[in-house]
TrEMBL record:
Residues 91-120 are annotated as: Disordered. InterPro entries: Lysozyme-like_dom_sf. It comes from Streptomyces nymphaeiformis. Residues 91-114 have a biased composition (Basic and acidic residues). This is Cell pole-organizing protein PopZ. It comes from the Bacteria.
Length: 226
């Protein structure tokens, strides 16, 4: 029997229509025929073009599907990477915060230990005289360790660690050159002869006016007095 290849309205090859195929109703045949263009009805010169066009459309559809799949995969991979990066950043931030907290607690504990070991002026037995080494040892024990060097720098410039140093022109007296010297009586009646009393007064003065001996030393460096 004669046969003809059918081409659908979108250009795809649909199949073969023959006279001895399974019996179909006239209505179904007419409906199919209405939506079908037989390849035989297309001029011979254009048949190859129609087939190539159909294959091209199929390839385009497959390529578009592949592109969509790749895009979806790339988006999912990017989402996973972003989630991992965010988690890594959070872990790093948490670690940094924990380390900062631990360092702060360590410094606070160290400061408490330093302060707990500080001796008061009255804890030193009175002597008839004191060497520079003895006076420095007293001062070191009467303040936080991180403040001693600043205090020492000021005393070195003001009196050279001579607790009996007197400025003949101004009347400043003692280790820290209090002006007038008798102001140190607020720290103890023995202010003229006891370096511990002078150190106590000097620390109170530096803390009250500059926040600390190191604050006083910074001011001294800028102004050559404090």
């Amino acid at each position: 029997m004669a046969s003809a290849t059918a081409v659908t309205t979108v250009g795809a090859i649909a199949g073969v229509a023959t006279g001895n195929t399974a019996q179909a109703s006239d209505d179904n045949f007419e409906a199919t025929a209405a939506d079908t263009t037989l390849l035989a009805d297309i001029p011979a010169g254009e048949q190859a073009q129609v087939q190539v066009s159909s294959l091209s459309e199929q390839a385009d559809a497959q390529a578009a599907a592949a592109d969509a799949s790749l895009k979806k995969s790339a988006e999912e991979a990017a989402r996973i990477r972003a989630a991992k990066d965010a988690e890594a950043k959070k872990e790093a931030a948490d670690k940094a915060a924990a380390e900062a907290k631990a360092e702060k607690e360590r410094k606070e504990a160290e400061e408490r230990a330093n302060r707990s070991s500080i001796r008061s002026a009255s804890s030193f037995a009175a002597q008839g005289s004191y060497s520079i080494a003895e006076v420095k040892a007293m001062a070191r024990q009467m303040m936080p360790s991180d403040q001693f060097s600043c205090f020492s720098n000021i005393v070195e410039h003001e009196s050279g660690w001579n607790y009996r140093a007197t400025n003949a022109s101004s009347g400043a007296y003692g280790l820290v050159q209090a002006l007038p010297g008798y102001k140190m009586a607020s720290a103890g009646a023995d202010w003229q002869t006891n370096p511990a009393t002078q150190i106590k007064w000097g620390l109170n003065y530096m803390d009250g006016r500059y926040g600390s001996p190191c604050g006083a030393w910074s001011f001294w460096q800028a102004n050559r007095w404090y």
